[in-house]
Design brief:
By secondary structure, the protein is mainly α. It contains two helices and no strands. The chain has one domain.
Length: 65
């Protein structure tokens, strides 16, 4: 494995972790009966969006090279 492959693997791993954290925050907030504008729910949505965006960009980058 060269450095680029290690970097891509690390990026994918952290992106999936961000997705998991986002889902966990959303599920925990909804289970607790949080309001739609609660900080935890919004943070979960942001983590989910950031993780999904990183996965998408990495996937597109992999197809181009």
């Amino acid at each position: 494995m060269n450095g680029r492959q290690v970097h891509r693997g690390g990026t994918a791993l952290l992106s999936l972790a961000m997705l998991a954290i986002g889902v966990a925050l959303i599920v925990q907030s909804l289970a607790a009966g949080a309001s739609p504008l609660s900080g935890r729910l919004l943070l979960g949505v942001l983590f989910l969006a950031a993780g999904a965006g990183r996965v998408y960009v990495e996937y597109r980058r992999g197809r181009e090279t």
